[in-house]
Amino acid sequence: MISVFGSLVGDEEIANVVACMKSQWMGFGKQVDQFEQKYQTKYQLPSFAMVDSGSNALFMAVSLLDLPPGSEVIVPSYTWVSCAQAVILAGHKPIFCDVDLCTMNVRAEDIKARVTEKTAAVMVVHYAGLAVDMEPILALGYPVIEDAAHAIDSTYRGQPCGAIGDVGIFSFDAVKNLTVGEGGGIAAKDPALIERAKVMRYCGIGKSGFDAAVSSAGGKTRWWEYNIKEPFIKMLPTNMAANIGLAQLDRIDALQARRKEIWESYQRDLAGVPGLITPPDAPAGDRHSYFTYCIRVHRRDELAHYLLDNQIYTTLRYHPLHLNPLYEQTDVRLPNCEQLNADALSIPIHPRLSESDVDKVVAFIKKFYA
Ligand SMILES: Cc1ncc(COP(=O)(O)O)c(C=O)c1O
């Protein structure tokens, strides 16, 4: 089966994990600091902390904004469920908005259409790794949370995605451009927010008792007396994950180059297929991450089943959130999200695909529409 998504790890990741296990320090520790410094430097982020998932990073991002209880946060409907769950769990209400049919990204006008007097913040998602047009959204004047789960390595007008709004998040889960198995990160323009995030991620305690003890002159503190700064859940990343991430950072440029090659093959070979709409490239000056390759087609469900019958797994990323009864917004009409729900399909793109895999995907799509 050719999978729609996948990661690639090698001997370096394996060696790092084995060394970590042999060190007997697999939980949170020094390698987390090393990963944070290396990631922050590589992507020129003003400040950055690792956490245990992108979903939890979203919850932390919303929490860090300290919005008035019951505020509304505008969220594109065409995204992963964690975006809405984070808003609700932080005590607010997600208000779903539409996205652009071509870029599949949220635009300022989609947000403006959903603003009320309760609107307190906006969440944007750099869908597939194509940067959202941030300037008109920042100009609206609301705090902006950037979901850059798809946008590791993406840039907008020279700035790294995830560090353009007030707070941004990344995902390092099993299928993302950079994987640590399960993991995430949070970035902010204001380093004070990330200092606070580092306290929050350890149940609101911050420095562990051990660190406090070894850093205290003469060991005179009672290190078992925690100074709990605020109520929060545990989101600590592990040395095991950080060790995988350190090796992934050494190979990320090669992984990205392979994704780009596959993207360009699809752009070239699928361009002439009747009725098939290929995704847009990044505008000049921006950089795409090539996380997912989402086409729009007639007879989408039939195509997906035909490809599956031929050992090619595809998927829809994402079933629009406003259509889910849980959020009680099924009466809201978001025509572009609903159109994408009917005709969008993500086809395989990841660094483990061979040339013949890519050729097979193209050949079967062409055969279906012949
Ligand atoms: C847009 C988006 N945001 C957030 C997440 C959550 O990331 P994680 O899987 O690391 O929790 C995902 C995961 O797929 C995602 O696609």
| Structural class by SSE content | alpha/beta
Mind telling me which CATH architecture of the largest domain this is? 3-Layer(aba) Sandwich
The portion of residues assigned to helices is: 25-40%
Low-confidence stretches: none
Tell me the domain tally: 2
Spatial arrangement of strands, main beta sheet: 1-9-8-5-4-2-3
Coarse morphology: globular
Give the radius of gyration: 21 Å
At the first level of CATH, the class of the largest domain is: Alpha Beta
Helix and strand pattern: HHEHEHEHEHEEEEEHHHEHHEH
**Main beta-sheet strand count, sense and barrel state:** 7 strands, mixed
Beta percentage is 5-15%
CATH superfamily of the largest domain: Type I PLP-dependent aspartate aminotransferase-like (Major domain)
The rounded distance between the terminal residues' Cα atoms is: 23 Å
Question: What is the topology?
Answer:
Elements lengths: L10 H12 L7 H13 L5 E4 L2 H11 L7 E5 L5 H8 L3 E5 L10 H5 L6 E7 L8 H5 L5 E4 L7 E2 L2 E2 L6 E5 L12 E5 L2 H10 L8 H7 L23 H31 L23 E4 L3 H10 L25 H9 E4 L7 H15 L1
Parallel strand pairs: 2-3, 2-4, 4-5, 5-8
Antiparallel strand pairs: 1-9, 6-7, 8-9, 10-11
Helix pairs in contact: 1-9, 2-9, 3-4
The structure holds pyridoxal-5'-phosphate (PLP).
The site of pyridoxal-5'-phosphate (PLP) has 15 residues, from helix 3 and helix 4.
Describe this structure in words.
The protein is α/β, with parallel strands linked by helices. It is built from 12 helices and 11 strands. It has a 7-stranded mixed beta sheet with strand order 1-9-8-5-4-2-3, with helices on both faces. A two-stranded antiparallel ribbon has the order 6-7. Helix 2 packs parallel to helix 9. The protein is globular and about 80 Å long. The two termini are 23 Å apart. The structure holds pyridoxal-5'-phosphate. Residues 53-55, 58, 79-80, 82-83, 125, 147, 149-150, 171, 173, 184 line the site of pyridoxal-5'-phosphate (PLP). Pyridoxal-5'-phosphate binds at residues 53-55, 58, 79-80, 82-83, 125, 147, 149-150, 171, 173, 184.
